[in-house]
What does this fold into?
Amino acid sequence: MNDDDAFYAEIREFFLIETKDLLESTESCFLDLEKDPKNEDIVQSIFRLVHNIKGSAKSVGLNSLSEFAHHLENILVKIRNKEMEVSSDIASILLESNDRIKANIEALQEDVNTVLDNSDMIEKIEAILLGENSSVVIEETEKVIETNIINENLGTILIQENKVSAEDVAKAAKYQESKIGEILVDQGKLSEESLQDALSRQKKVPVKSEEYIRISLNKIDEMVNYFGEQVILQSTLEYAKDDVTQNQDLIQKTVSQLSKITYDLQQTAISLRMVSIKTLFSKLERIVRDSSKSLNKQIEFHKNGEDCELDKNILESIIDPLTHMVRNSVDHGIESCDERVMSGKEEVGNVWLNAYPRGGYFYIEIKDDGQGLDKEKILKKALEKGIIKDASISDSEIYDLIFRSGFSTKETATELSGRGVGMDVVRSSVEKLKGNCYIDSTPGEGSSFTIRLPQTLAIFNGMIIKVNGFQYVVANSDVVEVVPYDHKKSRKISSGAVIDIKGEVVEIIDLNSFLKVRSDVDCDEILEPSLLIVNYKNKKYGLTVDRLVAQQRVVHKPVGVEVREVKGITGGTILGDGKVSLILSPSELLAHIF
It folds into this structure.
């Protein structure tokens, strides 16, 4: 590759990154346009975004993408010139087109030579422009898009190896019922042997491209300044180490300053991973919109806190759990229009999404003004399924039952819910992020689901504990409290042992027995047994430790494959004495036990 080709490839790569960001803006604008179709500012904003994508795609040689953006632009021209009104169907085709461009961008990021086929969407757009079908039926496209991406990669491989022509692949891609390889074999364009060879090569193609995030220049400048101060302090220590006794005060002062600079540098470094949750809010708003139309309900979506920031990894991991919870609010929570009117409510239901940082944690709350959770129905279903034996449990424990695997109060399953899967995955996903789920509900008035998350997983406050001579780390956020442990005050039960903590019976979990480690260290130190009180599924447990060593800031490091599959181990870190210590997750430990 010569310098010109490298430069051209770099420009194209940056175009794909920029366009991916722009598409998040267009989706939000399309949703706003549906609510306020007469707003000319929104129309102009969308038109500029799509026009920019069309022109830029053309300039970097992505003609298929540019052509599709041109067709989408034609609809926007008609809307801008007031020749077409923005109906619900028009908004749907705009959103579906936006989804298709996203899929195109993702496919191009994986392989810039991917063959794009948007003929089906172009036909829908042309039908609207010609007025042939004023009531467009919008189909679900997620599975089709996913299939297209896989097929396009295979098609690219076949074209590059001169086994089929680009025209053959384009024609085959129109048939969505079968896989593209099977279609080409059936048409006699490709041999079975060539297909299998191409499929084996396809498996080697990386499915995830390099990721990027936008960073404020001010944050970069701030980091450089902190590094500069660290260099100065390091020079001071280099000078002082020649005579430690005489420079003792200078060394202590410098180390103290270095600790402060290091902490500030850590916070700045963590902030580089923080991204706006505005994109997440737009996705959830889209889900509420599509789900309500599918269920023939009228729902308004309210959002607050979309300007907050969250660690990118946490944000990506929380999308699926929040998606399920929002769909539950729309499907389970909000009643039909007729039911709402009969109960004296407004015909239009409401779903609120609130996000806010508080006390070192990040909270995301999903509320609705629907019918609320039916405690009696949940309790009855749990007893029928044998999930619980005793009906005398608290309200919070009743609500907690909906997180059990396979539990659902719906008699019939819909496309959105009712199969008894989802809420258990929500809880496990949140707990993997060292978070918690809380439920509050009032019959007839609505429900509230709150997720509490750490703001980042990279660096956290943790406690170093000793179990049978080995040191482990537990995040402070995982522990409710630490209490001294006198085994004489515990009492035996059939499943183990329990102890009374402030009037509450707490089951004891012997960490040493679970971890099954033997220490080669001759442990002559005086032990100070303690119990780490942790919450798991709205119940408290006490984890036994030989000694609480210290509290410190912990840098999370991934572990090797040998340890990665061990239940309860989420990572590792290097302690102040240079030794490696494993990080324990109490929720994963208890999930494995129970």
